[in-house]
Amino acid sequence: MENALRPATVVCAVLILTLLAGWVLDLLLRQADARHAETPLWGLLRRCVLPFRLVLATAALQAAYRPARVLPGRAAAVGHVLTLVQIASTAWLLVAVATAVVDSAYARYAASAPDDARVRRVRTQVTLIQRALTAVAVVVAAAAMLLTFPAMRTVGASVLASAGVLGIVAGIAAQSTLGNLFAGLQIAFGDTVRIGDTVVVDKEWGTVEEITLTFLVVRTWDERRITMPVSYFTSKPYENWSRGGSQMTGTVFWHLDHSAPVALIRDQLAEILKDVPAWDGRTGSLAVTDTTPNTIVVRAVVTAKDADDLWTVRCAVRERLITWLAAEHPHALPRVTTAEAPPRD
């Protein structure tokens, strides 16, 4: 009875201690978050309570399982399992703390920075750095866990001896993956494309929604997602409409009759733009840019704060001006001149 009671008592004590310590930590973080509203750090650190409990519980069990005679016949296996859990939970805790610190710093920067383009650039860099750190932590933790097995330590010398050859083979086999990895780092710190940028790739217009170390996701205007390797953006030309600022200039064309009242159309364009909220007020001009034997080409130049608003302005101007011409000046719309065929002799 005593042999079973002692291990159960130790395990229950460890669980109670872990839950109590986690509750105290969460309480302290909540109080700190309430006192320091200027930073979200303390609230974000509350995500670390679960891995902290796991690390604490594993450490306590490692110290007490032998004296408490928990599964004495399998003490080595129990210790090995606890070591594996300790390594994994420590890596989880470190990643969670680093993520909370980085997210807090980015949130404070985004709240104070006036330049939206700079905020999106920092967001892209922070996202890629977080993914890189997480990948490094996972790889290191996995390597440390593998080294706890005696067989892995035995073959370590032979692995090191053949590392040169394996490195060459792996480099050739993973050439595309490594290329995308370095391209992702180049995008993060080269500031060529950022999360939130409006881009045109392969004749598809959309917004950059996600950037990882190997691929990039573009959300198109019709809610489709295009997944592309990040190496595309370092090896091929593409349009970035947000580069150097998100303001856009667009054109609207009409083919009208030669008798169209251009001066009145110009005045009507100004009235239409005043009623379009998406217009930013920078430019709203109209000119005749070409003529054909049957029509003239009238072009309006309009501006907006970004690509979405520019599309809205162009559609509204095109629709309302055509409606006004049809109602007030129908003779200005293109006409097809017909005549009777001459009689045969």
Describe the protein in words:
With 345 residues, the chain is of the alpha+beta class. 59% of the residues lie in helices and 16% in strands. The protein folds into 3 domains: 2-112, no CATH class; 175-240, SH3 type barrels (Roll); 248-332, Alpha-Beta Plaits (2-Layer Sandwich), CATH 3.30.70.100. A hairpin with a 3-residue loop joins strand 2 and strand 3. Helix 1 packs antiparallel against helix 3, helix 5 (116-147) packs antiparallel against helix 9 and helix 11 (262-274) packs across helix 12 (307-328). The longest helix has 38 residues, at 75-112. The chain is elongated, with a radius of gyration of 33 Å. The relative contact order is 0.06.
Record keyword descriptors for this entry.
3-stranded antiparallel β-sheet; 5-stranded antiparallel β-sheet; SH3 type barrels; alpha+beta; 345 residues; elongated; 3 domains; Alpha-Beta Plaits
